[in-house]
């Protein structure tokens, strides 16, 4: 019975480790870190092609990505363009955002490594008399 509980806990920990690593990666890639105020639409843009009210445009900025409105495509459903604004690391918005990018990237690398190692904890639970769970838990705490 004890072995079944340990196996279920390690499977749950493995699954959650993978989910958290992907969630961090998605958050890093997101352009929704700063969301601007809604821009009012002009009278001809108030309704879209389907006849319903169009959502107001909100400019967004992320660590290295942003979303901007494409002026000549305002009547289409895809009137915003999202992508990187920084071609190189030095073009990231500020020194604080550069530091954030470095720390997030290091944390994501650690979390992805732990998620990868956690898959192997199903078979091997200790190496050199050290519990892999304790080491990985410490690494997750550092990455957080």
TrEMBL record:
Key words of the record: Membrane, Transmembrane, Transmembrane helix
InterPro entries per record: LHFPL (IPR019372)
GO CC list: membrane
Protein name, entry field: LHPL2 protein
Keyword set includes Transmembrane: yes
Residue spans crossing the bilayer: 12-31, 96-124
Membrane topology according to the record: Multi-pass membrane protein
Pfam (any one): L_HMGIC_fpl
Localization in the cell: Membrane
Statement: the UniProt record of this protein carries the keyword Zinc: no
């Amino acid at each position: 019975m004890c072995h079944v509980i340990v196996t279920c806990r390690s499977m749950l920990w493995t699954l959650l480790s993978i989910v958290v690593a992907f969630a961090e990666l998605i958050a890093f890639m997101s352009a929704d870190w700063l969301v601007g105020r809604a821009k009012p639409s002009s009278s001809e843009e108030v309704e879209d092609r389907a006849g319903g009210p169009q959502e107001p445009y909100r400019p967004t900025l992320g660590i290295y990505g942003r979303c901007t409105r494409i002026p000549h495509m305002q009547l289409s459903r895809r009137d915003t363009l999202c992508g990187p604004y920084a071609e190189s690391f030095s073009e990231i918005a500020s020194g604080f955002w550069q530091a954030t990018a470095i720390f997030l990237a290091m944390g994501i690398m650690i979390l992805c490594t732990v998620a990868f190692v956690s898959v192997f904890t199903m078979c091997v639970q200790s190496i050199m008399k050290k519990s892999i769970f304790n080491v990985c838990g410490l690494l997750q705490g550092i990455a957080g």
